[in-house]
Amino acid sequence: MTNSMKTSPGNPPNNHQILILKYAISSRLLLLALIIFWCILVHPYDTSSPLNPTCLSSNSLNHHHHHHNVLWPQIGSAIEDSIVWDSVYFVRIAECGYEYEQSYAFLPLLPICILILSHTVFAPMVPLIGLRAVLALAGYVVNNVAFVLAAVYLYRLSVIILKDPEAALKASILFCFNPASIFYSSIYSESLYSLFSLGGLYHLLSGAKNIAVLWFALSGCARSNGVLNAGYFCFQTMNQVYHDIFLKKRPLLAVKDIVIGALRCACIFLPFITFQAYGYYNICHGRFLDETRPWCKSKIPLLYNYIQSHYWGVGFLRYFQLKQLPNFLLASPILSLSFFSILHYVRSQPEIFFSLGFRAPTGEKSSTAPFSSQDTTPITNITKSKEELSTKVQENQNLRQRSQSSKGDDNPTLPEHDLLQKPGCFHMFIIPCILHLGFMAATAFLVMHVQVATRFLSASPPLYWFASCITTSQGSGKKWGYMIWAYSTAYILVGSLLFSNFYPFT
Q: Which stretches are tagged as biased composition: Polar residues (predicted)?
């Protein structure tokens, strides 16, 4: 492989992308095999998953097909038995629409995809296995295909950020076997959210801003936290405005960039806001005052927040109870990895982070151009070549090994110093990614049910970039790399066992 192929962010090696496709598909087949194995071996905790009352609306598909005889009832029943936890809501919405208030907590992108696929490609299978089984099968296909595509987009994005196809490859392989893998192969919204979030980031850095807006908006149709992706445009607009005012001395151009940035952010928020308005119209509109729900009378009647608080007890510090300690322990690995990822990148370039990219590192000249989609030069490569940095890494590693040998210290420590010198591990766009990760991690720890942090944070690219840096470093970094792989393996095995048999897991 030539050096130009290794360093060109616009042309990632095709053999790497093919390899990522193989890893992603293999990981999904592995999860499928594990699910089938555990379902055969272990008796489910709750056997109510096949229960499915007739839809409230007489115009729904359920009304017409629920009582029809099917040719392969055993296969249909086996598929229906796999509809557990939140999957019940997504399949029910695809089948019957939004019937109950709490169902509005689940955004419509996944149910819409399930409905479209079951009406087209899988429609001939309804007489064979039944409608609900077809809906579930469509959900599995949508999510597993979306996951494979998300892995490819993570690789393409990582090549741009890390400037190193090998490191990008390792980061993407880690994603293929991430600890929340069971949810990416189930009827959950994680796969679609990851696809459109990672794809949006890639298109944004590639210069296709309008496409990025569309993809980010679709991520907000999959999960509510998709609206946070508007922050990437806020960061980019902020840098452009700074450049317009202080470097170009063109305040009118700055106003134009602010307006464009605001419109793009509004487009990203629009699907989520529209869905909230849809819920308000269905639940609150046309009712007498004494019949309306409490949230309908609020100044800002936000249905999503009310559902999370009223039905699931989500709120600031509301989960800080002694009985929830096991759930905090369950989430501690992903929260710890998030903390060290943030700490690593902040310590690598503190001046840049705390100035939000407006200040250059000490001893370097300020950039003459703002951060933009075309700016893909990593900060660590501004004044030093890759060969010089690699030599310094080797010298530091040898020095540390001699020091450890003289002291007899075998305790593993995070290879922070080595990682900071590793070329390609810092890029200006890491700043908004780290801010995004930090906000989500704080929300998961302080506000949400903390055990969902494993899947809530699993689509955050800095986790895999940092883990890739660890696994490619020498010395104690390898020990931490083994720990990360052991953590992922354990959660895949335990998750596929517990989740598929209706036992609590994240």
A: 391-406
Return the DSSP state at 55: P
Annotate 286-299 with DSSP letters as a single string.
T--GGGS-GGGGSS
Q: From CA 7, how far away is CA 475, in angstroms rounded?
A: 26
pLDDT (0 to 100) of residue 69: 81
Is 302's pLDDT higher than 70? Answer: yes
pLDDT(411) > 60: no
Report the alpha-carbon distance of residue 353 to residue 370 in Å, rounded.
15
Is 52:470 a contact under the CB 8 Å cutoff? no
Structure token digits, residue 451: 């055990």
Residues in the chain: 506
Summarize the confidence of residues 399-418 as an average pLDDT.
42
Give CA–CA dist 26/436, Å, rounded. 30
Alpha-carbon separation of residue 271 from 112, 167, 194, 230, 399 (angstroms): 14, 35, 17, 12, 55
Interior CA angle at 86 toward 223 and 36, to 5°? 120
pLDDT in tens, 308-329: 999 998 999 999 999 999 999 9
Task: List Cβ<8 Å contacts ≥24 apart for 109-114.
Answer: 109/189, 109/192, 109/218, 109/221, 109/222, 110/139, 110/142, 110/143, 110/187, 110/188, 110/189, 110/192, 110/222, 113/138, 113/139, 113/142, 113/192, 114/90, 114/138, 114/139, 114/142, 114/187
Would you kindly state where each structural domain of the chain is located, as residue ranges? 15-43+70-357+424-501
What region, left, alpha or beta, does residue 337 occupy, with left being phi > 0 and alpha being psi -120 to 50 degrees?
alpha
Q: What tokens appear for 40 in the block?
A: 């055969």
Q: Is 247 helix (H, G, I), strand (E, B) or coil?
A: helix
Predicted confidence (pLDDT) at residue 384 exceeds the cutoff of 70: no
pLDDT of residue 378: 37
d(CA 506, CA 501): 14
Q: Which is more confidently placed, 103 or 417?
A: 103
Tokens of 301: 């009647």
At 60-110, the pLDDT tens digits run 555 444 445 888 999 998 899 889 999 999 999 999 999 999 999 999 999
Residue 426 CB neighbours (<10 A): 27
Contact 225, 269 (CB under 8 A): no
Higher pLDDT: 309 or 43? It is 309
359 three-class SS: coil
Residues with Cβ within 8 Å of 202's Cβ and at least 6 positions away in sequence, in order, are 153, 156, 157, 160
Of 270, 60, 193, 87, give the one whose Cα is nearest residue 459.
193
Q: Output the pLDDT for position 12.
A: 63
Tell me the one-letter amino acid at 393. V
pLDDT for res 419: 36
